[in-house]
Amino acid sequence: xxxxxxxxxxxxxxxxxxxxxxxxxxxxxxxxxxxxxxxxxxxxxxxxxxxxxxxxxxxxxxxxxxxxxxxxxxxxxxxxxxxxxxxxxxxxxxxxxxxxxxxxxxxxxxxxxxxxxxxxxxxxxxxxxxxxxxxxxxxxxxxxxxxxxxxxxxxxxxxxxxxxxxxxxxxxxxxxxxxxxxxxxxxxxxxxxxxxxxxxxxxxxxxxxxxxxxxxxxxxxxxxxxxxxxxxxxxxxxxxxxxxxxxxxxxxxxxxxxxxxxxxxxxxxxxxxxxxxxxxxxxxxxxxxxxxxxxxxxxxxxxxxxxxxxxxxxxxxx
Length: 318
Ligand SMILES: NC(=O)c1ccc[n+]([C@@H]2O[C@H](COP(=O)([O-])OP(=O)(O)OC[C@H]3O[C@@H](n4cnc5c(N)ncnc54)[C@H](OP(=O)(O)O)[C@@H]3O)[C@@H](O)[C@H]2O)c1
What we know:
Elements: E1 14-19, H1 27-38, E2 44-49, H2 56-68, E3 72-77, H3 81-88, E4 94-95, H4 97-102, E5 107-111, E6 114-118, H5 121-132, H6 137-141, E7 145-148, H7 152-163, E8 173-178, H8 181-193, E9 201-206, H9 210-218, E10 225-228, E11 252-255, H10 263-275, E12 278-280, H11 283-298, H12 304-317
The structure holds NADP nicotinamide-adenine-dinucleotide phosphate (NAP).
């Protein structure tokens, strides 16, 4: 049978970046410096600008290329994580448990000739939180998480807390807010039927009114974590809370974004001193995701001291 798509033999070990406007990403400048640190020789990052919610063939063709060309070693998938898995599920020889639970692939790599699809966000969102929330915090504080947005990142955070976080040190409640119902229903189905019982009570709230989100925030116990997982302040203007919203005392504000207008981050920073609030952007999360995927695709270990070197050079191209 003829191949489904033509395959373009790559001249050097290649990581494909499935994005939208990949030329504008700082990763294009970051990758050569990382390749030098990791000793990856001629390795290249090749951007694929793919349409958002495009026809399945565009994602399938890119996975097909990786599967069939020896020097196409893997892929890093950003915006198209769900569409890529849906379009190319049968091309993978293996999906990791996190890819199955999240219903997405962010990392495509090969081992022993087998094509593997993996979702890095549960582990990387957890590692990100561990970098700014001290161990034992949830057990000691009885605090909650308010996650604004119920998309892919919220699913990954739910998977992290229910499958990876220490059972004795989990939030009391995880309240997830979304502007429409389907993502909330999807998350509820995942939590109730596929994730293990975790001791964290999940609540699902459908609303978009910033004042209503302010009220949810005001009801949180001290020490709680508020996450902006809506894409607002980067993908769309504004913030899910208003300027009048008050963050939990001694708590944490985490904006998953690190570039753009970052209104939520600005609102949080304005209260950092008065509320004893730790404010975190999505930069470390971004670096953890990229370094994990580069490590998997090129099959090189990235222990913490090496990650610190990668982070230092990335800072220069941020
Ligand atoms: N730093 C990093 O490495 C990193 C990693 C992952 C994600 N991110 C960023 O995090 C953001 C979220 O990513 P994602 O993958 O979860 O995106 P996503 O799957 O598109 O989810 C965003 C969710 O937010 C909801 N939403 C939008 N505006 C809202 C509002 N005003 N109130 C309540 N809900 C609202 C959307 O609702 P509907 O269901 O109605 O559309 C959608 O479910 C993006 O900006 C992404 O770039 C950063």
